[in-house]
Write a structure and sequence with these properties.
0% strand
Length: 269
Amino acid sequence: MNTLESLQDKINSNEELDFGTVLTDTITLFKKAWLQGFLLVVLLFAVITPILLTIYIPIFSETFSQLDQGASNPLPIRSLQQLDDNYRYMIIAISFIITFFTTAFVAAFYRIIKNIDYDESFKFLDFFFFFKAKYLGKIFALASFSLLIALLNFAFEKFLPPSAAGLINAILGITSSVYTMLFVVFFAFNSHLESADFFTLSFSLGTKKWFFIFGILFVSLLMAMVGTIACFVGILFTISIVYLPCYLIYKTIFGFGELSDIDRIGSDI
């Protein structure tokens, strides 16, 4: 079982990562796991869609109300800057709930990916592996990071000029994207650790390999966009590829406790 110290030691060893190898392995693994990736997307849509409706139904209701009253130019969707603070707080809260469910499902997806990668058995119910009481607090802690980012975005938009707020929020979003992806993969394979350990390890690895990880995530996102060719429906099958590079990076640096040839011989005696 991994400890914080053993994982940190492997990060400090500065394992070299090859961009081409990770990219090739991503494509190879996607060919084996695309169906499970599609199921992940379906589950996320099933959970997220009702939550999003709680945001947009009031907006559409207001729009239709304006039309009934003879408004000549109703705004069907208002920008965040035009929303009152209470509504914006509701959006932040809903975003947190979405992140909570996404973290649980994606972490379970990583475990399934490992099973596929190592030709081990798995079942559909494995997607719900982390919906257990002992994991919920840790998922809550990880999702809280996205809540912090959302609150910072809100503060910047409220107190800074729109152009400055937009620039800062974009930089913050791009920078944090690497760390949020690492949070989930560390949690998926080290759920016995404390919540603070996931942040420590993610920031440690993310700082050392930020440009590499962001680069491979960006390229994988471009590959996922291929699904838009099929009238955008195909992206349901391709978008899950963006999660695979972090799994392969974790596998390369930390491994999964594979036995060496000598250990295997000894274990057969």
